[in-house]
Amino acid sequence: MALSLYQATVPSYIQILNSVLRLVDKAEAFCAEGSLPADDILNARLAEDMHPFVYQVKSTTVHSLGAISALHKGTFSPDMTPPPSSFEGLKAQLETTLAALTALAPEDLDAYIGRDMVFELGDRGMPFTAENFLLSFSQPNFYFHATTAYDILRHKGLAIGKRDFIGAVRITPAA
Question: Which of 104, 124, 148, 172 is most buried as measured by Cβ atoms within 10 A of its Cβ?
Answer without folding.
Answer: 148
